[in-house]
């Protein structure tokens, strides 16, 4: 017998997604293919286009009358002003179509196509990594960490608290999701220098940002587009969404405080204790918190420029119409400025940039692989079939049972369609009218959509979970152990708030 046995390792993010790809292929053989007709707006010709499987596209005048004829209760201005950009599912148009089975060849092509589709996100990640590499070369991180650890000694949780609050606000305001990857390279070394582990890093950034996004108040990529697709102003239901944000945020912060307190008392309590050295080496190999690095004016200026990139990014997403190409360009511009003021030789800054970018290749590829799962499901044309089945399950129920049923339906749909805006335009035109049949306001269905899908997106490997875990080297099973209490809290909070709204409306 061996003196010591090797511990069984949980599959990597790549292996998990590969298995899910195989499952997705199997589903295209098991679930009947089907399709709703889809409505889109052509701004060039100022008319609507209806795409129905198997027949030529049909053109209709872009008028309120056309929307009424199609039973779409959405203001015309939401199409003409560009608020709704994606095709809208048309109610009562679902039809079964010939089966679209997928095979291994389709899977290989989807892996390549998925990577191509997320090229803008990958470029953003590479530029971010390059920026971090350049700043590491300047010694600015080292000097800044030394200063921070001295100022927060004895009050380390204040940093975790501040980051959680900022992420909660960013999530509820503009739906920080993919953008959150930009925060890891700067904040992870901070948390490590304060004596925390990888779980604290993912909790303060991803968990808090996701909770904020789950209880979105003005997020244009989820609650606003869902409200528009449901045919109501996004301000309806704002009070309960804000209350949910406060309750959900309090749960996250309290949970983080409990975990951090346990961790400070006993480092072996860490859920990722076995992987601590590999994680430390990954993020701290170019940083020595004990080094005597002078915090010069030049280094302070570099950190100020670096820090300015993040509020600039948030402003661009919220008010400037930015997406990943614009965010990548702004980060690249700031990186070039830092290169010029660093005082380092040209070869050093270039090597720093390429080295930093190379370390995020795995993360970028995970995003492409996750997109491949969505491509298989889309090409298999089973998502609409699943949605049609879900609508029949909840139709005609009692108001309270109906809304909890909606919550559960959207939890499931969050796995099939992990895009918040994609799920909104697919499901809301179908699900929102069901609220009319059971006598409750449509804004409650919008809340069920938002809260339900994000309960699943804490867990769904097809979302950003595996991207985050890949960046931090956390096994998926360790993440499940950590996040399940928060998933339970969100489900309870969401269920209670939905039932209270139904009860109030019924009075």
From TrEMBL:
Membrane topology type: Multi-pass membrane protein
Primary subcellular site in the record, as a coarse category: membrane
InterPro entries: C4_dicarb_anaerob_car-like (IPR018385), DASS-Related_Transporters (IPR051679)
Localization, UniProt: Cell membrane
Keyword vocabulary terms for this entry: Cell membrane, Membrane, Transmembrane, Transmembrane helix
Residue stretches spanning the membrane: 12-31, 121-145, 157-176, 182-207, 214-234, 240-260, 301-322, 328-345, 357-377, 397-416, 423-442, 454-474, 486-506
Superkingdom classification of source: Bacteria
Membrane listed as a keyword: yes
Protein name: C4-dicarboxylate anaerobic carrier
Source organism: Haemophilus parainfluenzae HK2019
